[in-house]
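HUMAN: Spend a minute on the protein record below and explain its fold to me.
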Amino acid sequence: MSDPENYGEQMKSKGGLSRVFKALGYTWDGLKAAAQHEEAFKQELIIIVPLSIAAWFVPVSILERALLFSVLQLILIVELINSAIEANTDHISLERHPLAKRAKDMGSAAVFLAIVIAAACWICVLWQKYGSHV
């Protein structure tokens, strides 16, 4: 880094196809890091990967199938954001601080709400399909 004053500008992408490939590389690096270092992400993958596959075989409409699949991905998305918040907070300081706790707790709450949304969607779709037959 030769010019710290322009570091942000140097890190900005310039566009083009190479930018797309670099972005895919960053995406892959982020997914690998989460799978290697984040226990919650690993646990969620154990549940979400099979359910994501199962979502494509449940005999429901295409929109319901998309909903079942998408709400599972939402959990992973929110978990990735939560993990990023936690990593950045720890990078800034490992010292206990009320604002750091608040940030981490809010991230955790966001993951919980994503799980509630996913569970509600799965229950509603499956109840509509099979609930009246029970």
